[in-house]
Design goal:
It is built from 8 helices and no strands. The chain has helices at residues 2-10, 15-27, 29-46, 55-65, 76-124, 140-152, 162-168, 171-176.
């Protein structure tokens, strides 16, 4: 029956056969729905179904009919609160950085105090002979190992290139070679 409905829509049936198919369509609700589906398919293929459907115009009309919504002004308290919180966060960040720096300096000052106290003790003792620092050359393979170790050491992640400077610059070794 679907082929006959399709042939009827395409105009390929003879008049007497077309009238019998139309009679069956009128008497059967499922065939009527098939007839409607075939018409929708044909309209979609010919793009006639969407020609009268203008979405942009409907949206413009709806927006024109809609009353404007007035948003309340932001309260002064909210904007002051935002600036106050950002200032407090900045001050807290500066305080944390300062505290970390001061902790590092206090350790350095402790070592300076320890050096001064040891020099005071050393000056009180009689000196037998001038002390000459011993310079021991590290093995040549050790420099390469230290360079690689400093690059992967977790203690050097903040220092950047300074780790390479400490590992490579050894003026006494360079002067002797």
């Amino acid at each position: 029956m679907k082929q006959e409905i399709s042939a009827l829509m395409d105009g390929e049936l003879e008049a007497d056969h077309a009238s019998s198919v139309i009679g069956r369509i009128i008497g059967n609700p499922s065939l009527q729905s098939e007839w409607a589906v075939y018409h929708m398919i044909g309209d979609a293929l010919r793009e006639q179904a969407f020609a009268a459907f203008d979405v942009g115009e409907r949206v413009r009309q709806r927006l024109a009919e809609e009353p404007p919504v007035l948003a309340p002004r932001r309260s002064l308290l909210k904007s002051v609160r935002v600036y106050a919180l950002s200032a407090a966060a900045s001050i807290a960040a500066v305080a944390m950085v300062g505290w970390v720096v001061l902790q590092g300096q206090s350790e350095g000052e402790r070592s300076v105090v320890a050096q001064h106290s040891s020099s005071a003790i050393a000056s009180a003792a009689p000196a037998a002979s001038p002390v000459r620092p011993a310079s021991v050359l590290p093995p040549s393979g050790l420099n390469d190992y230290l360079l690689v170790h400093h690059g992967y050491s977790p203690s050097t992640q903040i220092q950047g290139m300074a780790t390479y400077i400490r590992a490579v610059a050894h003026p006494e070794v360079e002067a002797r070679q």
